[in-house]
Amino acid sequence: MKFFYIIFALLLSFTLLLSSFELTFFLFHSPFDSTIVEPKAHSLTWIYLLEQKYITFIDLDIFTIHEKRHLLDVKRLFENIHSVWITVSVISLSLVIFLYFRAKERLILVFRYSFFIGLMVVALSILLAFDFLNSFKFLHQLLFLEHSWIFPDDSILIEWFPLSYFQEFVVIVISIFFMFLLFLKSLHSLDKNRID
Fold first, then answer.
1. How does pLDDT run along the chain (196 residues), one tens digit per residue?
2. Number of domains in the chain
3. Residue 12: what are its φ and ψ, rounded to 5°?
4. Nearest CA to 8 among 81, 82, 94, 101?
5. 64 within some domain
6. Residue 48 belongs to some domain of the structure
7. Looking at the domain assignment, is residue 12 inside a domain?
8. Gyration radius of the chain's alpha carbons
9. Which range marks the domain in which residue 105 is found?
């Protein structure tokens, strides 16, 4: 039975991490202290990426065919991530509710496991951040076709999304995730105090 709780803790940690990603994706669209070139096109691009429906790039002639292809790949990836997030969120919430009414002490155990699993994810993220460029390249090589994500320095996508954007994005995701973990820890502490 302990195996089930560990699996559930992994699922809950994954759900919280994806929730952090989704929140950041919906709110963080440009690097801090940056001036957006072509703000209308930038805004339309985010509508394209976020709306979960396909709009045309008729008004967005600033993109090369290569850039449009990459944006389509990114959109599809984020749609898949969103679908996974919805699924794991429903499963996690259902299990939390079930355990809350059936085995509250086990739910607290799951929260504690999730907290420690999450701390390991945060620690790993910090380690990977020390070599962010290579981590970034590796992730893109896994997710996208060979060289489909590499653009010249004068690309509008490079101007909108420089490496600093992705660094800031990761910092925000991990910060939100860490806040979720602290919330889990506080739930565990509150319940522990009630039991004592």
1. 789 999 999 999 999 999 999 999 999 999 998 889 888 888 888 888 888 566 565 556 788 889 988 998 999 999 999 999 999 999 999 999 999 999 888 999 999 999 999 999 999 999 999 999 999 999 999 998 877 889 999 999 999 999 999 999 999 999 999 999 999 998 867 665 554 4
2. 1
3. -65, -40
4. 94
5. no
6. no
7. yes
8. 20
9. 2-35+76-195
